[in-house]
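User: I'm putting together a teaching handout on how multi-component assemblies are represented. Below are the sequence lines for each component of a complex, exactly as they appear in our records. Could you produce the 3D structure of the whole assembly as structure tokens, so the students can see both representations side by side? Please keep the chain order the same as the input.
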Amino acid sequence: MRKQFTYKALRSAAIASAVAAAAMTGATAQAKDTIKVGVVSFLTGPAAGPFGVPGKNGAELIIDAINKGELPAPYNTKGFAGATMDPVYTDEAGGNSKQVAEYRNLVEKQNVDALIGYISSGSCMAMAPVAEELQKLTIMSVCGTPRLFEEKLRSVVFRTQGNAVGDSIAAARYMTEMFPDLKTYTGINQNYAWGQDSWKFYSLAMAKLDPASKASSNPQFPKIFSGQYSAEISTLSLDKAKVVHSSFWDGDIEAFVLQALVRGFFEDKKFVSVVGASAVDSLGKKFPKGVVMGTRGPYGLLTRFDRSRPLNNWFVDSYKARYGVYPTGPSYQYAKAVLYYKLGMDKAAAMAGKFPTQDEVVAALKGMEFESFGGSVKMALGGGHQAIHEVGYGITTWDKEKKAPSATDVKFYSAECINPPEGTLAADWLEQGMPGAKC
Amino acid sequence: MQLLITILLDGLTYASYLFIVSVGLTIVFGVLKILNVAHGAFYAWGAYASAYAITYASDMEYADWIGFVCIFLAAAAVGLVLGMIIERVILRHMYAQDEVLIALATFGIFLILEDVILLVFGVNPYFAYQPMALLGRIPVGGISRDVYSFTLMALACIVAFSCWWGLTRTKWGKLISVVIYDREISQAMGINVSMVYLIVFVIGAGLGALGGAYVAPTLSVAPGFGIDVIVLSFAVVVIGGMGSIPGALIGALMVGILRAVAVHKMPELELFVVFAVMAGVLIIRPEGLFAPAKARTI
Amino acid sequence: MLQILRSDKTVRWTLFGFFVLAIAGNFMPTWVQNNLMFGMARGLAVLGLMVLWRTGLISFGHALYFGIGAYAVALADKHFGVSDIFVRLILAMGAAGFVGLCLGFILRKYRSIFFAMLSLAFSMVLYGVLVKVEALGSTDGFSVSATSILGWTPESKYTLFCAIIVACATSACMVQYYLKTGLGALTTAIRDNELRVEYLGYSVAKAIHFKYIISAALAGASGAMMAMALGQVDPDSMVNWTVSGELVFITVMAGPGSVIAPFIGGVVFEFLRTYAFELAPHAWQLIVGGTLLAIIFFLPMGLWSLLERIWVRKGSSS
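Assistant: Of course. Below is the structure of the complete assembly, with chains in the same order as your input.
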């Protein structure tokens, strides 16, 4: 009986593994009329509402339009190198290790042709080595840590969003121009790559632009998604520094603003928010006036009602019509990354004269300059993989006529004014006093 | 001096919040001997329900003070509905099991409830700032503070007093002590133990929900924020002694004030101190600082 | 020792099963290999938990050792460029085992819920340090470079897959040997009646301490393998209390029946999560939590008991 048992177990094991292997290895052949692309953004967790979902909506809107060939000219060709995109929307929540596992699943199980997305700098830093290992084209859309391309040059990873260096230098320039009397500053930033880098480059830039300025000795670095900042607000209030710099995003910026607002924090301090514009939209009239607000590029709050050009108008109008709200920063950033991918595919197809391979697409994407919604984008850094573009700041106010939040004193800084030239590390460039900056 | 007052008030605010959240956990452990991981889910549900109700009331343009009514209604509703369902449908069949296994089952309940929140309330955050904005601010120790956090301290005092009074001065409280002391004998004496369990669990769930409901106005209520609360309230309850209400009070005060000191003086240690104290107390006094006297059952 | 191992049915089955898996792995697509690697790696930590569970102890803090193992690999890689699989494993197991040895002196006096809580506290201390210290990567963690074997860096992951299988098979057999002999054989006796074990002249504290070190070292190896298979470490997916919860979940799901069970449990969990995540991104926790409850209610001895029942029925019918 025991022999029989062994035999039976063996047989069923063999059958099971054969069936599994057959089921799993088939069907990798790629039809040329559709491409499958993973679109990754926060669909759950605290960053979903303010960042992930608007980002996904932006991508969805423009993917549908490109598939139908409905974008305004000159982008009105149908599809991506003629192929229709079949997006796989995936959740970015759950920590870096889980994301790495998901990335592998998207590439090796779902056989995607490329990936677009990633909001958190933590995700981007974790995904880049995997993308390189698996050699899969990945276009990062939102994240901002400069380490992504400063630590290493990447072959298949691109980022269509300017990094924290530009955002921080622009903030420092804006503050020294608009509020030259406010010499002391402190900060509250999340304790990970994005928050640490934002604070580091803001203080470096302040030290160069206004040598008389002075950073506080006790800047705050709470854990991301902590949500309760009562004690931190007290610390910042007790600090003599007049300016408070923050790169808070996701739900944290809203929580911070709500808790600080009721304590009159924004009357005592000049608050500089690098990327808090999503809170301006979600809190609406409640959002304090007089906050220095950045949008990480020519979109959202600062440019909603100007920069009239066909692509921008189409995007704002169709987004509002489809989702009932105005697009926010992440919506533009995701749409921009999709647009970039389309342009790369089309260009590569034109050059190759056939449906392009990934290498041809990568070559086409490298160093590309293109017109996006609010302005032009140059893939100038990181060997042509990292975008630079203008960055603006303004001061929040409430537009009574339009019944919408808006900004005054909006100033934009050109890409060359706030980014180091190719080949120079941002920290070194700042140390040298930003030589060659074209403002 | 300014710094001292600020640290003290920050610590007390945080302690009050911790106390309200963990007192439900400690009561449930004391009576039912269940370490309830799903407590974090009650907290999240309370926050969601109250934020939803407050935003709704505000959209209907009711007066802002209605928000406070919403908070308590939401907490009661969550405690009653979820507490009842979970005790009757799941936990009731588990009392004979090992404590740790029950804790694991409540972990499963927690995971389920977390996702049901997503399905019911969606992924967008809720902002229910009206009650907090209504009360405004006062200057204390050189900086402005929100009045709302002072009402939180008051609420913590009320909760502590009611628990003490309810347990020591009412008939129900005495019944509960009897059941804690010896379940079998109380059953033999004709006490409806099953009913006592249900009521205690509903109260515990309701207190967890109240914690969430009351802090909801200060937060952006978004998915996933029950996770950190669980371990924090575990720390509080363990420090004070599992099952002890004065213990929870002391535990909350210790954790709250230590954390406030850390944030002001050494921000890197903010999380470390909480769990270091938890481990330290467990090592020196495993039963916690205020463990209730245990009945010998042999 | 060899003789005992050779005569043991479980050992033969384990070796045979792992061997088949290693061969079959070569024909599997990479994503299946990956999920198997993750499942096996986790299974190793679960094996350690199972040893503890058989004495009646459940640790809600083994993410501590899982994390120490993973971070040992990542930090050694970052600062000293260590990429060799043996060095990595030894470092991880050594670090985890050493911490286990130290904490064991305290923990061996604790039982049931207090044991669980104190373990939880220790693991959260590590978590609190990791997320706040920039030099340790804060919430981002680190990426881990590719693993090499004696100076050779293989092209495909299949080599690592085989290495993990070898490590898992070795550990499973050694644990089986341990459970059969000496102090290990006291495992269930301790759970049933500690006093009696003491009267027999054995030290319960020492026995538990030893088991605790074993489980710590296994969890360290498990974390190291996870770090190598994933190429990434971070506190939220490796040290937070939810990770400990998952490990205990797999332990209960797998059941204490056999040293193979943890690996089956680990693999089932990995696939369950992958598919739940793919089919219902908004409700995958619901599926995982529901499974946990269902197992506790309907399969208190875990998946292994289900397999046993099927085999026994098949065996008797034929």
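A couple of points students might notice: DSSP finds 16 helices and 15 strands in chain A. Chain A has two domains: 34-164+307-388, 165-300+391-431.
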